[in-house]
Design goal:
Blueprint: E1 5-10, E2 17-20, H1 31-44, E3 50-60, E4 63-68, H2 70-86, H3 93-100, E5 101-102, E6 105-106, E7 108-110, H4 114-129, H5 140-143, H6 154-176, H7 182-187, E8 189-196, H8 202-211, H9 218-229, H10 235-250, H11 267-276, H12 286-293, E9 299-301, H13 305-324, H14 337-340, H15 342-349, H16 354-378, E10 381-383, E11 389-390, H17 400-422, H18 429-439, H19 447-458, H20 464-474, H21 498-511, E12 526-529, H22 536-541, E13 552-555, H23 557-561, H24 568-577, H25 583-594, H26 612-635
Parallel strand pairs: 2-4, 2-7, 3-8
Antiparallel strand pairs: 1-8, 3-4, 5-6, 9-10, 10-11, 12-13
Length: about 625
């Protein structure tokens, strides 16, 4: 038994030096985890405090080895350094840096990761040396392999993940046009710092924590309240329905990495079993169910179960709210599931309303079942084998009618990929709106058109929840917001939202699906320049604004590191070698190649002249064409 010292900590008074031991996995948080943390901070920064859980460490001679919580801690370190760089005049600038390190010595280190530790030190230096707004984390000598070996060292891969985290934070803040309060982060965000004494068996402790960390989830409490509200003679039936609906969510996808599992059960087979099996008795197929819960699944849902429950609550309230006098929830926060359901829970727990509370509970579970069936048949899943996204029921069709149906499904699949990747808060408001439409449109008529209407209505808006809530709570129709696509400054570097790049990828593919039959919209998070920023002054002298939309593209961090300052001919070679290149970028290079502009830039007067006026005009034409494509889509 380990005896822990427990110290409540806020970032402003954290003065420990911590280390990530060798048995911990590398830093690997991506868009979803980081943006979820930022969203939680944004939603709670007006509250008196926000608790983010426990961080567990072992005292190793004054340096504390992190046993649990290293992904969160590393992300906090990155966030504090980013905010410090952006707010050098802020009175709490020094407090942010104090959390990150002492001078150029970081408070955070990684065992046997020499290059990562050097990179962290370099970050503290480069942040100080570079002016506000510069990407101080892009230090090439610590992010790329100079030996020519294509396989990166693990610590260099980790360095790229850390650099990507800075870019994710930067893009999230630009997209939301809101920032995290420094006062909130330093003084209101808190955690319990649990330390085991020196000499503790770290590996054993790590294994115990990660195998015995199961705890009761909020949806388990909600289930208990729902089942208890149902008439006793019907409780077994509805409990079985609930369990079947949650079967795949309880099965952890991580088991796919265990090579000892020789067989795997595709999720679509599990879904088929769930949808067709009965629920007459408690022990019917019970052993089969338990076995299936431990099987490996190749796919997972794009929204977690808490998020799906909240969407179901809004759909239920729209359908039954007036009948049962249930008020609409005022928030959408999966971390506060029970609070979101507070009004609903009061209704099903009020024993003075015994005559109807069982009806409310039963109707909700039936609505949840129908929502889940829509998820299974009409919504994309994440493929855990290749990190792709697809509908599970798409297959080759023979008849012309079925072929047309399959084409429509492919269109919907591509649009859903766009919505998933461009959605910064992972609440997926489009998902609830689309499921509600499909529930009330059994023939599936115009479902793609409806999804496009939903997308246009939300359009990357920071008021997406307001639109969503008005639709469900006030039964308002979905209308497109007015967007001036001729206002070029809204689409320049530093102002443009990533959403518009994703939107263009969908439209370019939709209009050229025959030309790009295998293209899939993928996750890309970094807005980058085609003509390099390093030559900004040279291009400005040629009256070319490299920050205009025609010169911008959306890339992943790894793509950008291979693309950054190369000449156009090298970039074209790289683009042609990409398996799934951005279509906007491909379109631009087709124009440049057509006009013979894929050459090295010559800024000196005594060298062979480059057609800079042609380059300027091509960028302008490309920008006009892309913005025109967006505008046309909204007025169709």
């Amino acid at each position: 038994m380990y005896k822990f010292e427990i110290a409540p900590k806020r970032l402003i008074n954290f003065d420990y030096t911590v280390n990530v031991p060798v048995y911990q996995r590398p830093y690997c948080w991506g868009d979803e985890e980081i943006e979820r943390l930022l969203e939680d901070f944004l939603e709670n920064q007006k509250n008196p405090g926000y608790f983010i859980g426990n961080i567990i460490a072992v005292d190793n001679g004054g340096i504390y080895d992190l046993i649990d919580g290293q992904q969160r801690f590393t992300t906090l370190w990155i966030l504090c350094l980013y905010l410090a760089h952006q707010n050098k005049q802020n009175g709490q600038y020094r407090d942010l840096l104090q959390f990150c390190g002492i001078g150029y010595k970081p408070r955070l280190s990684f065992s046997i990761r020499k290059h990562t530790n050097l990179y962290l030190e370099e970050l503290l230096r480069s942040h100080e040396q570079m002016e506000k707004g510069k990407r101080f984390w892009e230090t090439d000598h610590l992010l790329s392999e100079k030996s020519g070996n294509k396989k990166l060292k693990p610590e260099l891969e980790q360095n790229r993940n850390i650099a990507a985290a800075f870019s994710i934070i930067e893009n999230w803040i630009k997209d939301r046009k809101q920032n995290i309060s420094i006062e909130f982060l330093l003084e209101k965000v808190s955690f319990q710092f649990l330390t085991a004494p020196a000499g503790s068996d770290e590996n054993k402790l790590f294994i115990q924590i990660n195998t015995n960390g199961t705890q009761l989830q909020h949806y388990d409490i909600l289930k208990s309240e729902l089942i208890n509200a149902i008439l006793p003679e019907n409780r077994l039936e509805y409990a079985k329905i609930w369990d079947k609906m949650t079967l795949q969510y309880h099965s952890k996808a991580e088991s796919k990495y265990n090579e000892d599992h020789a067989s795997q059960t595709p999720l679509k087979d599990i879904i088929q079993h769930v949808m067709t099996s009965g629920c007459e008795t408690a022990d019917e197929n019970e052993e089969d169910e338990k076995q299936k819960e431990t099987q490996d699944y190749h796919y997972e849902y794009i929204a977690d179960f808490n998020t799906l429950l909240i969407h179901t609550l809004y759909i239920f309230q729209k359908k039954y709210g007036s009948q049962y006098s249930i008020g609409a929830p005022s928030v959408f926060d999966k971390e506060q599931l029970l609070s979101v359901f507070s009004g609903f829970r009061e209704e099903i727990s009020d024993k003075n309303k015994e005559d109807r509370r069982h009806k409310i509970a039963a109707d909700f579970i039936i609505v949840l079942k129908k929502v889940k069936e829509i998820m299974d048949g009409h919504i994309i899943f994440k493929d855990l084998e290749d990190n792709g996204f697809e509908l599970l029921n798409i297959s080759a069709k023979e008849s012309e009618e079925e072929h047309q149906y399959s084409v429509k499904k492919k269109d919907s699949e591509q649009l859903q990929r766009m919505l998933y990747h461009s959605n910064w808060d992972k609440k997926h408001f489009w998902l609830g709106l689309y499921i509600d439409f499909l529930l009330n449109n059994e023939n599936g008529d115009d479902d793609l058109k409806r999804l496009e209407i939903i997308d246009n209505a939300l359009s990357g808006s920071v008021n997406a929840f307001k639109i969503y809530a008005s639709y469900f709570n006030e039964n308002t129709s979905l209308e497109c917001g007015i967007k001036d696509f001729k206002k070029a400054e809204d689409f320049k570097f530093g102002e443009i939202q990533r959403y518009w790049f994703y939107k263009l990828e969908y439209l370019l593919w939709k209009n050229n699906r025959v030309k790009y039959p295998n293209y899939k919209i993928t996750s890309r998070s970094s807005v980058e320049h085609v003509l390099p920023q390093s030559k900004c002054k040279n291009f400005k002298d040629k009256e070319i604004d490299i920050h205009q939309f025609g010169n911008l593209t959306l890339l992943s961090v790894s793509e950008n590191s291979s693309f950054s300052d190369d000449h156009l001919n090298d970039k074209l070679k790289y683009l042609n070698g990409m398996k799934n290149p951005p279509l906007k970028l491909k379109k631009l290079f087709e124009k440049l190649e057509e006009k013979g502009l894929i050459e090295d830039f010559n800024f000196e007067k005594d060298t062979k002249p480059y057609d800079f006026s042609g380059l300027k005009e091509t960028l302008r034409e490309h920008e006009t064409e892309m913005l025109g494509l967006l505008e046309h889509h909204y007025i169709e």
